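Notebook p. 47: complex prediction with molybdenum atom.
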Amino acid sequence: MSTLKDSDLHGKQGEHDAPGGGWQSVAATEKHFLRERVPWHGNRLMLKINQPDGGFECPSCAWPNPKDPGPAEFCENGAKAVAWEATAARTTPEFFSKHTVTELREWSDHDLEKQGRLTHPMRYNAETDKYDPVDWETALRDIGQQLNTFDPWKVELYTSGRTSNEAAFLWQLFGRMYGMTNFPDCSNMCHETTTVALPQSIGVGKATTTLEDFEHADAIFIFGQNAGTNSPRMMGHLHEAKKRGAAIITFNPLRERALVKFANPQTPRDMATNHGETISSQYHQVRIGGDIAAIQGMCKLILEADDRARENGDKPVIDHEFIEMHTDGFEAFADHCRSLSWERIERYSGLPKESLQQAANAWMASERVICCWGMGITQHIHGGDNVHQILNLLLMGGHIGRRGAGACPVRGHSNVQGDRTVGIFHRSGEKFLSKMDEVFGINCSREHGHDVSLCCEAILRDEVDAFIGMGGNFFRAIADQKRVAEHVPNLKLTVQISTKLNRSHLIHGQSAYILPALARTERDEQAGVVQKVSIEDGMCNVQGSVGQLEPASKHLKSEIAIVCDMARATLAPNPKVDWAWLCEDYARIRDRIEATQPETFPDYNRRLEEEGVFHLYIPARDRIWNTESGRAHFLFPGNVLAEDESKPNDPHFQLLTTRGHDQFNTTVYSYDDRYRDIYGTRSVLMMNPKDIEAHGFEAGNIVELSSVNEDGIERKVSGFRIIAYDMPENCLGAYYPETNDLIPIGNRDQQSGTIAGKSVPVNIRLMNTEEVEEATGRLATA
Ligand SMILES: Nc1nc2c(c(=O)[nH]1)N[C@H]1C(S)=C(S)[C@@H](COP(=O)(O)OP(=O)(O)OC[C@H]3O[C@@H](n4cnc5c(=O)[nH]c(N)nc54)[C@H](O)[C@@H]3O)O[C@H]1N2
Ligand SMILES: Nc1nc2c(c(=O)[nH]1)N[C@H]1C(S)=C(S)[C@@H](COP(=O)(O)OP(=O)(O)OC[C@H]3O[C@@H](n4cnc5c(=O)[nH]c(N)nc54)[C@H](O)[C@@H]3O)O[C@H]1N2
Ligand SMILES: [Mo]
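Predicted complex, structure tokens below:
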């Protein structure tokens, strides 16, 4: 079925190729609405997206809304996410009666979710191996009773980042009252690296930029982030910045189409010509894991230029005054960069000195620099060190706390940042916990609980009794997916609070429930009044979201109602926490959030009502550094080049796992990746043509990948077709989540525990005809 042209070199987007965005983007949007049979009001629905006055927030990515949103403030992939959620298809009890769980396990991720919205609470029946409908009361009573028999520390409460602030706050309140702090969160697979490393540098773990800064930046550096697919509304801002003459410098092993050239669907001129604007003024195809060497190489050039300027009595190149007043560790960092040899820098970064000189020149020519980063930076064994080097680059020029400059981690799920702000954290600090105790008259445990990796390891040790997922698709999104899945049947209870059928429903404990939740696009009425929830975008703006659509089924409950009912079924009554009363009016929950964090959320409800959206205070924007020393720090790992996970001389390859243009994480909308010219399949292995030849392969070969690790456990995935791809040597690319079996759970950022999905050491083996036939048969169904 694949339409791949094997001889072609994929991903080689150049100046003359079709841009990202453009008419193809409009066509794709329409196609997805049609396919999901979203009723005619679908288009009207899209006028309500990302509007502060009573609209709903897009359930896709966390990119912020502009101050004055246009009438159609959405992108192609936001529209796909809405169409997917608002679909006319339904996964009913009748569907479940026709298929055993064993049978469904053979289905692909795409086919599972394609069945449409879940309509009823369901309970697993071991005798028939099917899910049966169950009423809410029975389900919640049983869950509550079971929870009361478990050791709370053997229970895991997961959160995925679509959950609203209100639901997430109650979720962690429930967990803390139940008596534990096991709060694995999707951010532990995502920007946890940033959340841990950024405060070490500047005292805060969030973006120091606002959208307005993008209007004033002279240079925007983009490290390891595929904006055209994963935060397409960012493209409009890059497009504007480029037009006004800002330099855009991208570091990415893959030439991602929209970052090369983009036609803005919101700009008539681009649409008339469909030519688009060149986006990246420089595109550096860094080796996987080579960013540390690349940045330190740039810093070396900048420092040397500064030395020369000083000798000649010219204007300094770096911001000495800022460094002196606000930072420490500069001299040690500078010495380190000076001591690096070009041979090493080039070998580890995979980039020639001239390229890094160009990037350094752009930095030196800019008064205001923004650095953005995504999963290509965070999902590495040295992810924290990556983040620190980006910050060093900013600090050297005083680019924090200056208009048009700053640090911009581009976050993933639409409310992943807010969930963490309101208290989803397995290691919360004393300040927050003592407030929780005071406001709710409880006694929160100070023990540290589990994040995602620790939760997986506990499951592998058979030390978990129950897993409850507030959204997401945990058992598919994690590393070491297959190994963990093998232990899940040992759990006594699994509960998934979901909108659509996914693999995590099929990897279940002895007793298992699927609880169907209202989605963000849907009207949420409590006590006869339509409720608003709130979310925080990736640049710290908190705003309301009011669902517009008729719920997919009358049996759905809001996430908030589900938490409240579960808490009531589980916990002994507490006069200070009236769950039913909180559920009646979500403003009451916001009042409690404010009470526990008065400095972060002053006047929460009033501001949400009157201002529609408000920005959370980020001290680093005022050059206030909440670090121990009160200063910003230049941090670097002493011998990282020697120890870098991406050793250029290793016999094996480094694999990056990434997203295609038609997916949202584990949700696969289709098998096409238009921006990479890959159609009809996701079982591909992107590989440099020289490597293909040197290893005796040919494009089109079907191969097996096995990971290289120290624990001696065999991890393999098979049936991947090699495609020649424009990417650095020794590097490979493949899609997530299809490759998640390959990643050992120990393969994670050393500081934050974030899954290192971008540095997976692997070997490749050619499959023989029989194996290929078997694998193709399997892939045809899976
Ligand atoms: N449509 C859509 N939108 C999404 C999502 C989605 O799946 N679909 N997911 C959401 C979520 S949860 C998240 S976290 C974000 C993810 O958004 P991104 O951060 O863009 O995530 P990825 O696609 O995993 O990969 C990022 C990029 O890193 C590059 N890369 C890989 N390794 C390296 C490296 O060593 N160095 C450098 N410099 N680059 C590298 C890859 O080539 C790729 O272009 O998007 C969010 N938005
Ligand atoms: N190898 C590799 N692994 C990775 C990554 C990678 O780049 N490479 N990326 C990681 C990242 S960045 C992330 S964030 C995680 C993602 O991990 P998750 O957040 O756990 O996964 P999603 O695929 O976003 O979850 C999709 C499911 O969420 C449910 N859902 C959707 N909307 C709602 C809602 O409004 N309410 C409720 N209750 N449920 C809803 C649906 O049932 C759907 O099937 O994966 C991580 N895993
Ligand atoms: Mo993410």
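Notes: Residues 1-7 have pLDDT under 50 and may be disordered. The first strand starts at residue 20 and ends at 21.
Next step: compare against the earlier run before touching the bench.
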